[in-house]
Write a structure and sequence with these properties.
The complex is a heterodimer. Chain A is α/β, with parallel strands linked by helices. Chain A contains 8 helices and 10 strands. Chain B contains 14 helices and 13 strands. Classes of the chains: A alpha/beta, B alpha+beta. The complex binds adenosine-5'-diphosphate and magnesium ion (MG).
């Protein structure tokens, strides 16, 4: 599903001409198979988010290759990336990233709107999705009127609405209490088992990592394949 | 993203900051209205000038002359052959000018005309028809006024101008002249020639009365006789005055005009006539020169008006820049989910276009209302304070469709131009920065 090879990345800080180069990722290689849940762990500042942002196309790599679904994304333009994200990727963020001026319904509907789906079809699909995450009675609420757990469910609904084969999640449980965290994890597991959706999740929480099939660790920008989780647990 | 969705999206965005959006629209409204109003003065002056020229002559009329000498029968034949010429009218001055009915008398401007051509050229009648037979005539609209009872030569002496005019009016013929028969006095207008005995007359019947001239001050008391009658008259006058019998100018035409089917043909036909070495004069020629001058004048006014639009567009630029800054987080989220830069750009361009459209729409409406108001009120004000009536059909402001189209184009163009940079800026919003903002 995902194939990252020889990926390196460095941030450039400061004014042009006398910029500081901060290397973050070094020669990263990562394979994620279809239907896998892979957890990326590592200390804060080790480069986990940077790796995920590269795979999401939010930043462009200078060295290395990224392939998703057999599509080589290294030379993609900004608009090609946008189209690719819309059609193939779902996102779950730590801070939900809902548009505050849009209702829960409108937030979930947004990818369908961007895709150009007709209004009646949009209504049916959005309502169905809200039902699936248990928010049908909150559809007219604005993000500010929802709890953290509810907001995260809206954002998951939005990530799922176009049925992406791959979901990228950067610390999805980071802003949730343990009750909501448990619910979210079991939902992710269910999605993976029922629909074969692939997950690449960043987490520093071992509880979260427990649902993953595989764990990789980033240490100071270098990626190490971890052991299978059941081995760790044992 | 479908247009309908963009539209909905933009509308809900605009509603979030109603006051700011309306203030921006107000500025564009005023700018656009100012542009139209200012230019409309130029358009009004131009139109007045054109109408002025056109009221003298018909647009499809080409006056034709020779470099030297008068136009002959032969020349007329040649003109009639030219492609695109609908009719050639030719007139001759007739050197006998007295007509009478009962005790009423007048000295008129008697002209012979080729009636079938006049009819084809569109001679305009107030009443009656064009002459068909030799002794039928058409008279000018004011002919009856000039037909007066005889009076002693010193009758007006000692009277004020007003009284004299009133007296003259009282003496004028009052009845309907149509189908009346008049006596045409066949005496040459050369005062040196004296005739013994009674003057020979010929009966002529008025079958048509010409249309009132468009100008208030124009006074038409001419008499149009047929060419057949003219020839008869000249042969009689020739016996009184030997000069008449030999005069070239009485055989040839003093006034020859070619008419085209429509004003659009005038230029082509003029070229063809000039190729045959005639000199031409047409309203189109005169208007062309006038138009150059007025077009420059109007362009100047539009330029000044456009500055107001430009100032208003700074408001649009500010509003859109603020909108982009305020919504950069939303933009970032949308880009993260999969909105292309093109979509983002279109959304913001659409928003500035809506502001522009509202401004242009309201501005045009305001301009039309103001224009109407000014044209309505100004004559009243002039009458009140300056004590003078403005000329009929007076206009200070005239907004033709072309002006509206120009103004709409300028306003929309400037609006889109000023919305371009903010929209382009929206596409460069950094996804990561936007997503990190509230963490
Ligand atoms: N936009 C940025 N500009 C410069 N340096 C950055 C930027 N984002 C992250 N970094 C640096 O890159 C390193 C890795 O960051 P990140 O990938 O966010 O770590 P993690 O998600 O593992 O906590 C950190 O040292 C951080 O300071
Ligand atoms: Mg991180």
């Amino acid at each position: 599903m995902i194939s990252v090879s020889n990926l390196s990345y460095a941030f450039k800080i400061g004014k042009k001409g006398k910029e500081n180069i901060v290397p973050v990722l070094h020669d990263v290689n990562l394979q994620v198979a279809e239907g896998e849940i892979v957890a990326v762990v590592g200390r804060s500042g080790s480069g986990k988010s940077t790796l995920l942002n590269l795979i999401s196309g939010f930043i462009q790599p200078e060295v290395g290759n990224i392939t998703i679904n057999r599509t080589n994304l290294s030379k993609f333009s900004e608009s090609k990336w946008a189209e690719f994200r819309l059609n193939h990727l779902g996102f779950i963020f730590q801070s939900f990233q809902l548009i505050p001026s849009m209702s829960a319904f409108e937030n979930v509907e947004l990818p369908l709107v961007l895709k150009g789906v007709s209004v009646p079809e949009r209504k049916v699909r959005t309502e169905e999705m809200l039902k699936r995450v248990g928010l049908e009675s909150f559809k007219n609420h604005y993000p500010g009127e929802l709890s953290g757990g509810q907001q995260q469910r809206v954002s998951i609904a939005r990530a799922l609405i176009l049925n992406p084969p791959l979901i990228l999640a950067d610390e999805p449980t980071g802003s949730l209490d343990s009750e909501n965290e448990k619910q979210l994890l079991s939902f992710i597991k269910e999605l993976n088992e029922k629909y074969g959706i692939t997950f690449l999740m960043i987490t520093h929480d071992h509880e979260v990592a427990s649902i993953a099939h595989r764990k990789v660790e980033i240490i100071d920008g270098y990626l190490r394949e971890g052991r299978m989780l059941h081995e760790v647990q044992r | 993203m479908k247009f309908k969705d963009k539209h909905r999206f933009v509308r809900s965005n605009m509603k979030k900051n109603r006051t700011r959006v309306w203030m921006t629209i107000l500025a564009s409204t005023i700018g656009c209205a100012f542009l139209i109003m200012l230019a409309s003065i130029g358009f009004a002056i131009h139109k007045t000038a054109v109408d002025d020229v056109m009221s003298f002559r018909m647009v499809n009329e080409i006056q034709v002359q020779k470099e030297s000498g008068m136009m002959t029968e032969n020349d007329v034949k040649k003109l009639e052959q030219i492609e695109g010429v609908k009719a050639v009218t030719r007139k001759k001055y007739t050197p006998a000018n007295q007509l009478s009915i009962g005790e009423y008398n007048t000295f008129a401007n008697v002209i012979s005309a080729h009636m079938p051509s006049e009819e084809k050229a569109g001679f305009e009648l107030d009443k009656g028809r064009m002459p068909k037979n030799k002794n039928e005539i058409v008279v000018g609209y004011h002919f009856a006024e000039e037909l007066r009872k005889d009076q002693p030569e010193n009758a007006l002496e000692g009277l004020s101008e007003e009284e004299a005019q009133k007296r003259m009016k009282e003496l004028s013929y009052k009845g309907n002249l149509l189908n009346e028969t008049l006596k045409y006095h066949l005496k040459t207008d050369n005062p040196e020639i004296k005739i013994e005995g009674p003057v020979q007359t010929v009966d002529v019947k008025i079958v048509g009365i010409g249309k009132k001239p468009t100008r208030d001050w124009a006074h038409d008391n001419s008499v149009f006789i047929t060419e057949d009658l003219y020839n008869e008259v000249i042969s009689i006058l020739g016996k009184q005055d030997p000069k008449i019998a030999s005069a070239d100018e009485l055989k040839n035409y003093g006034d020859v005009k070619a008419f085209t089917a429509s004003a659009d043909d005038v230029k082509e036909v003029t070229d063809r006539i000039e190729k045959l070495d005639y000199m031409t004069y047409s309203i189109i020629k005169e208007l062309k020169q006038m138009n150059v001058y007025f077009t420059l004048f109007k362009a100047g006014l539009i330029f000044i008006g456009a500055i107001a639009v430009l100032i208003a567009s700074i408001g649009i630029f500010n509003t859109m820049t603020m909108a982009v800054t305020e919504r950069s987080q939303d933009i970032g989220i949308m880009k993260a989910i999969g909105a292309t830069p093109k979509t983002v750009k279109r959304i913001f361009l659409l928003e500035s276009a809506y502001i522009g459209l509202w401004g242009v729409g309201l501005g045009t409406l305001l301009a039309y209302i103001t224009s109407y108001g000014v044209n309505f009120a100004l004559p009243i004000i002039i009458e009140q304070f300056v004590n003078e009536t403005p000329p009929e059909g007076f206009m200070l402001s005239y907004i033709p469709w072309s002006l509206t189209a120009i103004a709409v184009t300028i306003c929309m163009g400037v609006t889109l131009l000023s919305g371009w940079r903010p929209a382009a800026k929206a596409t460069t919003v950094d996804v990561l920065k936007a997503l990190r903002r509230d963490v």
